[in-house]
Amino acid sequence: MYSYEYPHPAVTVDCVVFGLDDGGLKVLLIQRDLEPFALSWALPGGSIKLDEDLGQSARRELAEETGVTDLYLEQLATFGKPGRDPRERVITVAYFAIVNLLEHKVSPDTGARSAAWFPVDDSPPLAFDHRLILDLALMRLQSKLRNQPLGFEFLPEKFTLTQVQRLYETILCEGLDKRNFRKKILTTGLLVPLDEVEIDVAHRAAQLYRFDKEAYVRLQAQGYAFEI
Amino acid sequence: MYSYEYPHPAVTVDCVVFGLDDGGLKVLLIQRDLEPFALSWALPGGSIKLDEDLGQSARRELAEETGVTDLYLEQLATFGKPGRDPRERVITVAYFAIVNLLEHKVSPDTGARSAAWFPVDDSPPLAFDHRLILDLALMRLQSKLRNQPLGFEFLPEKFTLTQVQRLYETILCEGLDKRNFRKKILTTGLLVPLDEVEIDVAHRAAQLYRFDKEAYVRLQAQGYAFEI
DNA sequence: CCAAAAGTGTTAGAGATACACCCATGG
DNA sequence: CCATGGGTGTATCTCTAACACTTTTGG
């Protein structure tokens, strides 16, 4: 008989979705309508289905609960401390996601539960061990930003260098020198200038760039390591 | 009623345990005695218990199957593709471990199943998706080695600079300049020279060092980032 | 005295940092 | 013409990379 004699825990996915707007770095939370932690805010997520891969479950739950569909997603870590859910043993596979708030203007209230963006440094108490998960995701975001060209996931396809710099400054919580930053980011060769400039601004219009993902993949295969 | 209506998958842990000896980088595998994949080699691991944290499960399984107890352990990633186990849906939380082969001379045959160390670049076909897990672990090892002082986990408490250099060369698969390597590793301030030298060698005895973990933790808290 | 590995400094080049002003545009 | 942000170059310094010989020890 080919089967596991051991008791099976519940398995869920939870997503830490980051976005960036003028107010800074935001995280997407949903308000729970059921016990335990009814009315508390929590990371979007839910039970996996048995015929779905883990990443698919994460995308499905996000779409159902928040309407967010187009995003960068990667696995963060798995949390399974006994007692983290008062009902039963629940293992949760946490995902880390980035969504482009500027372009898609995601309205998170399309789902069944109420969802909202909170500043990461001023978010409400969270259900379960979700604070722990959020903190880990934030550390991961800061660390990955430095050695992977991940930041562009926050931006629209066409962006200015100032937008990129502000992004880094906001997430890393540190000021950066404009000239040095531009030199560094341009010498990677990963940004290609477009034949377009910003529009509708009350000052000199900035050059627009796009991120050349193909070039990055190519360089990466040759051992290139992005660093900012 | 506070419970999950969703079907529960099986949850296991699997460990990629690395060790280093004169023959290079090794990985610890066990030979399966049951179907599926009977007689195939596989990563040590097994079902979690409902009252155990995930890391504890990993340590318990390792001790039971291979006798290995004293090791560095961290979570790697979770694999849950439907069909990865032909019996039923199984989510496995993979762990990444390093054991000091030189000092402990682990005899992996103490467990119930036969266990053995294989060169990572010459290991047998593996059961399930364990090849995928091993490959990820190897990439993680190489990448972490560069920006965390993780390599010392492979070595005895007292070691020579040449041992450290050989370790880096073996795992990163690249030659390193002796003088530059020594300069770099010593200027971190994380290695403290002991009042001892190597013994029983047929040539000039080398200075012994130990890794100052406390210093690392202290520096890390101040924003220091190890890099080699 | 020979074999084997330990140990040690300098120079040139690349990359990082610090720093301030003029330009273009819209209102 | 003014306010706003866009855009640019140089000098210094620090870190990295390349490189070869002498010393110690045991056999």
Explain how this protein is built:
With about 230 residues, chain A is of the alpha+beta class. The first copy, chain A, has 2 domains: about 10-145, Alpha-Beta Complex (Nucleoside Triphosphate Pyrophosphohydrolase); about 155-220, Winged helix-like DNA-binding domain superfamily/Winged helix DNA-binding domain (Arc Repressor Mutant, subunit A), CATH 1.10.10.10. Helix content of chain A is about 30%, strand content about 25%. The first copy, chain A, contains 6 helices and 9 strands; from the N terminus they run ββββαββαβαααββα. In chain A, strands 1, 2, 3, 4, 5, 6 and 7 form a 7-stranded mixed sheet that branches. Chain A has a two-stranded antiparallel ribbon with strand order 8-9. In chain A, a hairpin with a 2-residue loop joins β1 (about 10-20) and β2 (about 25-30). The longest helix of chain A has 18 residues, at about 130-145. The radius of gyration of chain A is 20 Å and the shape is globular. The model of chain A has no long low-confidence stretch (mean pLDDT about 95). At the A-B interface, β5 and β6 of A face β5 and β6 of B. Chain A binds a DNA duplex (27 and 27 nucleotides) through α5.
Please give a quick description of this structure.
Two copies of one chain form a homodimer. Chain A has six helices and nine strands; from the N terminus they run E-E-E-E-H-E-E-H-E-H-H-H-E-E-H.
* Major beta-sheet overview of chain A: 7 strands, mixed
Gross morphology of chain A is: globular
Strand content of chain A is 25-35%
Query: Average pLDDT value of chain A?
Result: 94
Structural class of chain A: alpha+beta
Assembly state (oligomeric): homodimer
Say which CATH homologous superfamily of the largest domain in chain A is assigned: Nucleoside Triphosphate Pyrophosphohydrolase
Distance between the termini of chain A: 54 Å
CATH topology of the largest domain in chain A: Nucleoside Triphosphate Pyrophosphohydrolase
**How many strands in all of chain A?**
9
SSE series of chain A: EEEEHEEHEHHHEEH
What is the total number of structural domains of chain A?
Answer: 2
Name the largest protein-protein interface in this structure.
A-B, 32 and 32 residues
Give the low-pLDDT segments of chain A: none
Using the CA coordinates, give the radius of gyration of chain A.
20 Å
Helix content of chain A: 25-40%
Number of helices in the DSSP assignment of chain A: 6
Tell me, what is the CATH class of the largest domain in chain A? Alpha Beta
Under the CATH scheme, the architecture of the largest domain in chain A is Alpha-Beta Complex
